[in-house]
Amino acid sequence: MKSLAWWEAWFSDSEICEVVKVLRKIPLSSAATERNWSLRGAIHTKIRNRMKVSTASQLTYIKHNTIIQNPQLFKKPLETSSSLESEAMDAIEADLFIYLFI
Predict the structure, then answer these.
(1) How many helices, marked H, and strands, marked E, lie in the chain?
(2) DSSP three-state, residue 10
(3) What is the DSSP secondary structure assignment for residue 59, as one 8-state letter?
């Protein structure tokens, strides 16, 4: 039995069946892929054009996992406290430099 048929058989009169129908139309990997390419584009810019593919891949991997482990560092605060955000970014970039080049 296909999953949509199962949902329609058991939950046809509920809102969750409608949600499942909409969610099934979204490709599973499109959101994650777009986030990855966006992050990669922010790392491998025109200024950093000579960066090796392996270095860009390592930086993307590290930044992605840092975002997952510390989401509060990358959220925009309600108040404008850019000094805390810039200090956090400086610390992360320093760690990345030490990891990759030392």
Answers:
(1) 5, 0
(2) helix
(3) H
